[in-house]
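// run 5 | inverse folding | seed 20
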């Protein structure tokens, strides 16, 4: 008699691992790790303005953060494919701790370039954190993957509170070094996230997954994958493009740092709160429709920003921008899950994120220069062009799919 049979005979039912516990641990880690990005976005342009040799470089630390995301996505995917996702997670959290320590040292020393190095490692951490959503999908049956993916994203709601409040309550603790204590606190939060991730049990890569599956070129030629990448790029790039400029724009308009922190807090909450139900919406209406709703909300956010520069205009812009990002990015991520075989998942997912973050770096670099040279309105007007491109991609994909069904 086997051990399992003996348990049944004794009236003890074996424990069935559904993956729910791991999904919730990943959601908690997302909440803690998301504070890393919140701190960088809330402080990056301000510290950059204080330390940069030229005001034109004020938003460069945030752009370097995005470069770190793009540069480290493929290496993180390679680590996950060869050694398992948990190894990639712990590498990422190590970068998160390093981010806080380097940034604090940069503020104390007054070194702009050291601060940029710190934000690069912060981008590496953020790249790994965004793979949590795909890891959650690996932990559950196929039918529940959209919900698992969105549940992890919902953990970012708490990041929306932790990050900005961390800035508000710690930025003046180590005088005269503004934000130095904030970065040390952020390093501590990253260390706590690592402890949570130690308990996550994600399936180890199989021999087939290490081999890699089909050539990436064949996968990239799929119309659905192209649409998923375009929607992911536009959703994330525009969110970063507008959010990068917003804190500095608010300061240039005479608004307080506290107002900027609060606006960013509600923006991040709006980014992740829909995660509690986005998966259900995808299951019911399909990923393309949810992505379309996200693009529409992003367009509305830009339109509201063009109506004025009061606190409420900035806050509404940031809130709607966050909602649009969630629907657009989660919808695009669900489309990616439909484009690969199980053994191809880490390669395809990391390629998707590399394309998204690589393009986002361009938007981040241009955001600061557009703001300083032409103003906040120009930043908002420029956002409508990529929205039109993404909308066209969705229409073409939907039309081709309808044609195949009709045929």
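// decoded
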């Amino acid at each position: 008699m086997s051990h399992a049979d003996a348990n049944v005979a004794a009236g003890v039912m074996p424990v069935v691992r559904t993956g729910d516990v791991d999904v919730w641990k990943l959601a908690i880690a997302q909440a803690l790790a998301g504070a890393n990005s919140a701190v960088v976005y809330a402080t990056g342009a301000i510290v950059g303005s204080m330390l940069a040799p030229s005001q034109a470089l004020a938003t460069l630390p945030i752009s370097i953060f995005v470069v770190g995301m793009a540069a480290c996505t493929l290496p993180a995917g390679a680590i996950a494919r060869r050694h398992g996702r948990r190894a990639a997670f712990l590498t990422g959290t190590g970068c998160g701790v390093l981010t806080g320590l380097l940034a604090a040292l940069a503020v104390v020393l007054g070194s702009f370039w050291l601060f940029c190095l710190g934000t690069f490692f912060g981008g590496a951490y953020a790249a790994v954190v965004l793979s949590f959503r795909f890891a959650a999908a690996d932990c559950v049956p196929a039918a529940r993957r959209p919900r698992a993916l969105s549940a992890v994203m919902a953990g970012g709601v708490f990041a929306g509170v932790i990050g900005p409040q961390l800035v508000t309550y710690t930025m003046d603790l180590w005088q005269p070094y503004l934000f130095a204590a904030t970065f040390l606190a952020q390093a501590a939060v990253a260390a706590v996230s690592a402890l949570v991730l130690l308990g996550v049990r994600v399936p180890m890569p199989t021999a087939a997954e290490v081999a890699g599956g089909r050539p990436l070129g064949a996968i990239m030629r799929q119309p659905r994958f192209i649409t998923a990448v375009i929607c992911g790029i536009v959703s994330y790039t525009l969110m970063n493009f507008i959010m990068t400029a917003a804190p500095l724009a608010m300061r240039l308009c005479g608004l307080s740092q506290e107002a900027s922190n609060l606006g960013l807090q509600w923006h991040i909450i709006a980014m992740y709160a829909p995660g509690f139900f986005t998966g259900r919406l995808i299951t019911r209406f399909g990923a393309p429709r949810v992505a379309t709703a996200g693009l529409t909300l992003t367009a509305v956010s830009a339109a509201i920003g063009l109506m004025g520069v009061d606190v409420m205009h900035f806050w509404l812009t940031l809130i709607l921008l966050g909602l649009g990002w969630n629907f657009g990015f989660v919808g695009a991520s669900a489309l990616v899950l439909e484009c690969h075989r199980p053994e191809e998942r880490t390669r395809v997912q990391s390629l998707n994120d590399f394309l998204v973050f690589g393009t986002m770096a361009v938007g981040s670099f241009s955001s600061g220069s557009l703001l300083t040279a032409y103003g906040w309105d120009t930043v908002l007007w420029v956002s409508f062009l990529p929205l039109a491109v993404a909308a066209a991609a969705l229409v073409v994909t939907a039309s081709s799919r309808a044609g195949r069904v009709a045929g």
